[in-house]
Design brief:
By secondary structure, the protein is mainly α. It has one domain (31-111): Orthogonal Bundle (Cytochrome Bc1 Complex, Chain D, domain 2). The chain has helices spanning 3-22, 25-28, 36-46, 67-71, 78-86, 99-111. The chain starts with a helix and ends with a helix. Bound molecules: heme C. Residues 43, 46-47, 49-51, 62-65, 70, 81, 84-85, 89-90, 93-94, 97, 105 line the site of heme C.
Amino acid sequence: MPLLPRAMPAVWTMLTVLAVIGLPRSVVAQPVPNTAEAGKKLAEQYCVTCHVITPSATKGWTDAPTFAAIANRPGVTAAQLSAVAQKPHMNMLNDRRPKDEADAMATYILSLRRH
Ligand code: HEC
């Protein structure tokens, strides 16, 4: 197998990259950037089971308000939304998220606001 030894480093690099990506955030401890893009990804991970998180999607399985509806409530602020995401709600069925993630999701929700 003359090809295999040369192919191995590439394989290990790939496995290492996958392992690092797959590590729990607490181990990697990279703060999430406070951008709508990062917030959308997190919402797709943690909130989409209950909330409709994009304006175009159809209704979810709970009566959770859509993120677009939340964004368009009068007087809503990023701090307020971030605080909600940092606490459990809906009978604690959803995870509480760390502040950096909550801030990013708040930024995403507010990006859905119709101006
Ligand atoms: C298990 C289902 C469920 C999950 C998961 C969930 N939510 Fe909710 N959420 C609800 C329901 C139901 C409501 C409306 C009733 C309430 O406020 O408890 C709600 C309300 C909200 C509100 C409005 C609260 C207010 O002040 O009226 C915000 C903001 C919100 N959710 C954000 C999020 C974010 C961000 C995530 C992801 C981290 C998330 N939710 C995940 C079910 C869920």
